[in-house]
Amino acid sequence: MRYDCLSIAGHPVVETPNLDELARTGVRFDRAYSATPSCVPARAAIFTGQSQEKHGRVGYQDCVPWKYEHTMPGEFSKAGYHTQCVGKMHVYPARNLMGFHNVVLHDGYLHHNRNKYSIPVQEHYDEVDDYLHWLRQQVPGADLTDLGLDCNSSTVARPWHLPEKLHPTNWVVTESIDFLRRRDPDKPFFLWMSFVRPHSPLDPPQAYLDLYEDADIPDPPIGDWAMTDDPDLDGLSPYTSKGLVPKRRLKKAMAAYYALITHIDHQIGRFLQVLAEYGEKNNTVILFTSDHGELMGDHNLFRKSLPYDGSARVPFIVNDPGNRLGLGNGKVVQEVVEMRDIMPTLLDAAGVAIPDSADGGSVLKLAAEESGRKEWRSYLHGEHTQGAQSNHWLTDGKEKYIWFSQTGEEQFFMLEKDPQELHNAVHDVVYQDRVNYWRSVLVKELEGREEGYSDGKQLIAGQKPVTVLSHIRSE
């Protein structure tokens, strides 16, 4: 879910009443990013509280074992919490508990699990996915491929074909409600409700698609630096990450994407009602976020992994219904926060010690009612291996510098003046001091990295990208 798809953030179309209420009565972090914006590395940051340099996953690669001494659910479990995840984990092996007492798993369609004989460990999809087992009990012979939509198709949409209660989004909430029933009443609990949607496939229930199909949906922003032709007709591919998509197809995809978000919002409202019925709402701290965004046609780009805000910037809301933490109602925080900050934040909220291995920080100090800027990171370094589009980027929330490691191409955006990243100002004379400053920061960030992108004096383009750093591969 991208950062701007909240009514309270000013989106002109999307309806998110329950998330708006969490933000209105809690704290919204307007400059939240996923430093490595795809599922696997982002979730490594969530689980470990670590930067990508430390947890070692700097791009998307499946089938690399997850072996971390300290994890967020593990620390909660050790502290006496009853811990549960419902939905997406995206770890390896798929049934790795990562410190949870129990996982009710639905990772979505994972190609390496489907293609059974292409991986060393034959962990076939129908052997590991709990949602699929449950769905087939309701609808014999059902499969996730029945709609003909691929999990990485961001431009093709159609409505969910079964009763809404069978949709994966409803299932996550149904199973989470059942956890409230089955949990140990003598223990506090930590529950991770992990929705696959609004990640494609774009398959909202018809009632939600109806909300947006005839809406006046604004066209995506197209920067002066964006591709404007499509000689290879990439935009016609259902799996495209770039290209000129037929307008009607794109509008349908955008409508379905927004519909999936409203669907999740309503299901979150459903869960909050039951949480109150169990008497636990005022005794629970809620954090809502996403592991990455979705470009959805911004600059004629799609999906994730790239450094632009549509891909890398996410919603991030902290709500404390019982008002035990002294958070400001309706406060909007502008400091840059990231996935690595989730683990320290929730452990801090629960009074559980934060392990030394975490290099993120608790955002509660930023969210507290007292005013004034707290000591916090001055900028964020993000990156993602992506073939020829492998990239590194830096932002303080006001400016953004991007360096494409394979070509040496640079981009610079003044986010305060140009929030949609429409103008690449890297060659503007007036900003050369800022470009030089950010380039020097990245030189230092990458100095000593195994890829050889920096010698401490300059950036070196064309070095071979590494998706998983050696200290993780060797474990």
UniProtKB/TrEMBL annotation:
Name of one Pfam family that matches: Sulfatase
UniProt domain Sulfatase N-terminal: residue ranges: 2-352
Family: Belongs to the sulfatase family.
Molecular function in Gene Ontology: arylsulfatase activity; metal ion binding
UniProt keyword Metal-binding, yes or no: yes
Enzyme class: hydrolase
Enzyme nomenclature, EC number: 3.1.6.1
Origin superkingdom: Bacteria
SUPFAM superfamilies found in the cross-reference section: Alkaline phosphatase-like (SSF53649)
Gene3D superfamilies hit by this protein: Alkaline Phosphatase, subunit A
Alphabetically ordered keywords of this record: Hydrolase, Metal-binding
PANTHER family: IDURONATE 2-SULFATASE
InterPro entries in the cross-refs: Alkaline_phosphatase_core_sf, Sulfatase_CS, Sulfatase_N
Official protein name in the record: Arylsulfatase
Cellular component GO terms, alphabetical: cytoplasm
